[in-house]
Amino acid sequence: METDELTHSVWDITEDEFPVASPLREQGKFLLRYAILAPSSHNSQPWQFAVRDETIEVTYDETRWLEVADQDKRELFISIGCALENLCIAAEHFDIGYNITYHANKDDNLVSIVTLETESEPSFSRPPKLFDELTERYTSHQLFEDQTISQETRDKFSRTIEEDDVTLYLINESEQKRSIGELQADADEAQMADPAYRKELGYWVGMGALGSSWLMARIGQAVVTHFDLGEREGQNNSKLIERAPVIAVLATHADTPTARVKAGQVFERLALLASAEDIAVHPMSQTLERPEMRTELAARADTEGEYPQHLFRLGYVEEERTHTPRWPLESQLS
């Protein structure tokens, strides 16, 4: 699928490299070096960019769509929203204005157009410390410590949301977490029982997209593809949810591609804020990948008629921060 190899070198970027005296086109291309550091489902990195003078067209690459796990492209649009948010944060840091036009609801691969401006004030000011976390943010799969997240910190999360049509639900009540954990176990077992799902997951594991060495990636691909590990995964992930200090759900009023893009922007903003607060983040999507379980999650999370788009854990852990590899920016420009 890719001619370029996955690499960790893309994380080695410093703001001193920003081309201050260059045209907006070159500055915009530099901003995309931060955009591609965004998280994505299975680390599929489904975004593509076209830089045209003062505009950046954001599209999706259908060859990186998870057709089995993500049949309605919910996770694809959330992933692209994360990259779009990184782009916005980097632009603000370098005093570049921007305007976003969303196109995701149309029947083509165009998701949004970002128009860069040399003189413009953003309609919403994100916390400045988020920029520093663009190269620090990571995902943790570990069991979180038994340490509560303060109300003050949870309020900070809520204040970072400007979108009227995206709602953050923070769940810390034990019985509610247990109920969601049970649903997670059921989702894991159902997904892993599907050979097509295991084959797709095995493909991405085998590519090394999740950060394993070549040998371990190949071994992991064989194991995931040929063995139903649903019960084991379900028990483990259920425990991760039940023991997390906070379970977060992002929900939207509408269930459209654009709503999902905006949910992705909010998630990335929250993930970067969590990183700044030394709080680990772990997205868990299985319950959202099956329509009947997504409906049940809405009931158990009490999303008040809104559509759940993203589920993730928040908590503390003693862990060295590690990054998953990325394809070079050049392979994602069209």
Describe the structure.
InterPro entries: Nitroreductase-like, Nitroreductase/BluB. GO terms for molecular function: oxidoreductase activity. The protein is of the alpha+beta class and 334 residues long. The chain folds into 2 domains: 9-139 and 322-332, NADH Oxidase; 151-315, NADH Oxidase, CATH 3.40.109. It has 9 helices and 8 strands. Helix 1 crosses helix 2, helix 4 (174-192) packs antiparallel against helix 7 and helix 4 (174-192) packs antiparallel against helix 9. The longest helix has 20 residues, at 74-93. The protein is globular, with a radius of gyration of 19 Å.
Helix and strand succession?
A: HEEHEEHEHHHHEHEHE
Low-confidence runs (pLDDT<50, min 5 residues)? none
Cα-based radius of gyration, to the nearest Å: 19 Å
CATH architecture of the largest domain: 3-Layer(aba) Sandwich
Class by alpha and beta content: alpha+beta
Q: How many separate structural domains?
A: 2
Question: How would you concisely characterize the structure shown here?
Answer:
InterPro entries: Nitroreductase-like, Nitroreductase/BluB. The protein is of the alpha+beta class.
